[in-house]
UniProtKB/TrEMBL annotation:
Pfam families registered for this protein in UniProt: ABC_tran
Keywords linked to the UniProt accession: ATP-binding, Nucleotide-binding
A GO term, aspect molecular function: ATP hydrolysis activity
Source organism: Georgenia thermotolerans
Domain of life (superkingdom): Bacteria
Protein name (database record): ATP-binding cassette domain-containing protein
Amino acid sequence: MGAAVEVRGLRVVRGRTTALAGVDLDVAAGTVTGLLGPSGSGKTTLMRCVLGVQRVAAGRVTVLGRPAGSRELRRRIGYVTQAPSVYPDLTAEENLRYFARVLGVDRRARGVTTVAEALDVVGLAAQRRQLVGTLSGGQLSRVSLAAALLGSPELLVLDEPTVGLDPVLRESLWATFREIAGTGTTLLVSSHVMDEAARCDELVLLRAGHILARTTLPELLRRTGERDGERAFLRLVRDAAPVRELP
Ligand SMILES: Nc1ncnc2c1ncn2[C@@H]1O[C@H](COP(=O)(O)OP(=O)(O)OP(=O)(O)O)[C@@H](O)[C@H]1O
């Protein structure tokens, strides 16, 4: 399959920091790609570039065959930010209905994820009439995910979707991601939890605005001789040539 996302020579400067220092990347369509790296390594910045909301200093990003940020991509991409962007004084269902209207999701169109289906996929059908402000943290994250699923986007960009969730919830969310990918959707998921690497088809390891490696967990373990992802990543960081910080 072709690339859902193509990044070439991407350089981004945020404030005084070179957040991305010349990144090249292809994200294969229909895969779950994990974007992993320490805090501040550039994961969110790269995702913002894919969404077309980040000013770039150089390079280009092509998403689903169009330049990132193109108007017609709006409905083809679902995005979940780190902070849940939902209305606490509306119920889960009301929130989703609102987003569906904003997105222009046609309830009668075939093959398009509706409000009821999205709530079902994330396991919140029973809480649909509950005010979002009264939901637990994990449930709240899942409302955001449900909102991103509306309209069946071809690409889902998820910024640390499992942060702060307990292991049981993380497990169930990852099962949901795999289910979504099984329908042909491409997922780009950031995390700084290496044990989530095992769930991804491909890993992109970022450090200080550079891609340190594009790999899979088995390959990373083989290459470093380590037994777990966390240690393997640390070894890779240690063994890599020092990163020259750009002004
Ligand atoms: N609005 C901003 N102004 C100035 N610098 C910024 C801004 N946003 C991010 N940065 C810097 O850009 C770099 C990359 O940040 P980014 O948010 O992409 O990292 P991250 O890998 O997503 O981190 P985290 O895992 O903590 O979310 C960091 O050094 C950060 O301090």
